[in-house]
Amino acid sequence: MPGIEKLPIEETLEDSPQTRSLLGVFEEDTAAISNYCTQLYQAMQRIYDAQNELSAATHLTSRLLKEYDKQRFPLGGDDEVMSSTLQQFAKVIDELSSCHAVLSTQLADAMMFPITQFKERDLKEILTLKEVFQIASDDHDTAINRYSRLSKRRDNDKVNTSAVEDVYTSRKKQHQTMMHYFCSLNTLQYKKKTALLEPLLGYMQAQISFFKLGSENLTQQWEEFLGTIGTSVQNQRAGRTAKR
Amino acid sequence: MPGIEKLPIEETLEDSPQTRSLLGVFEEDTAAISNYCTQLYQAMQRIYDAQNELSAATHLTSRLLKEYDKQRFPLGGDDEVMSSTLQQFAKVIDELSSCHAVLSTQLADAMMFPITQFKERDLKEILTLKEVFQIASDDHDTAINRYSRLSKRRDNDKVNTSAVEDVYTSRKKQHQTMMHYFCSLNTLQYKKKTALLEPLLGYMQAQISFFKLGSENLTQQWEEFLGTIGTSVQNQRAGRTAKR
């Protein structure tokens, strides 16, 4: 399919069975997009929630390590090597939790925001317009019915005029809401690809930044830090052995 | 504090107030370690659960993208560019979810396993031994009381002998359980540093592997892939413009 299909807005005035049939196809397509996007939205919401929880849990772990010095351990509470090692762990894990927090923010902005907008604004707008159009169609049907019943006994000019006016205004209303509804359905066909691709690109960019941030800044620091721990553990062992 | 403090096992037979007072200090230290480790265990469990959830949610997102082709979209369902783009997203996100799964496994083995063992085996053993020692002490006190009451009226040799035997066996039992309890409390002093450092080192190693795996394998593929998307989106745009 090379181009994007359109509902013919110029056909809304005639409102033929062919137009209604085409509308049915667009409505079915919209329902399928809406269903698929909602599933994707839920999966992305799970990723986002899990990422936030991971960020919070990592931060909590770092905080607990920082609080090691404040614990009251009657024995060996003043072990400086242990204490400074845990402080270094706390620092590095805190940096990692900052990376997670940056990732969370990026996911919020570049993934959750566009897909939520599409779901809550574009898809909801179509549902609202569908209802409005349904009400306008029903009102029009009622006016037509009233008019056709009245037209058999042409006795009351005032009632007749009122019925004709009703048909006119309800027809106009239906035409307007139908054009509006068609417009929204057509716009959705243009938006649907972006709606899927934008949050995915946002997700990928956020992950790439996260891996870059993590591997460039943190791992180098970590290797140095793990080297330091290794040295201090060895020193402690040597000290203990010498004292025996 | 250079060395590690010890409860003197050779003093368990005499069981002096000084020894009991020192035992109290060790019990207080053990309670503090237990409390701190439990908090750290809970924070690590949160990290682990969040990591598992993130892994599962990422996998679900990849699966949803793979299922795009199976969706029934009445309009534009046979758009090959969109379809292949989403399949590539699915593939890359699936690889990312594999990295997350590897991280989950490493966290399970190198972080959760050692801290769970320490909490469920070492710390629980001490609680059990404390109870056993308390029961043996109570039994011993009962036997001593019975003996001291009997000794005032030396009329029944059989009862006397039984009371002496009771004091002997309960004293022996109490001595044995006290030695066992002291041993465990001393062992904990040796284990407590490893118990804190081992899961933290496991966590760090797992994170380093994750960042290496992610940045070395994935990001290069991703950059190529994002380049490909850029090109195909441009081609699609150019095609659409040419057709107009």
UniProtKB/TrEMBL annotation, chains A, B:
It holds the Pfam family BAR_3. One of its GO terms (cellular component) is endosome membrane. Residues 7-241 form the BAR domain. One of its GO terms (biological process) is signaling. InterPro entries: AH/BAR_dom_sf (IPR027267), BAR_dom (IPR004148), DP13A/B (IPR047181). This is BAR domain-containing protein. It comes from Dicentrarchus labrax.
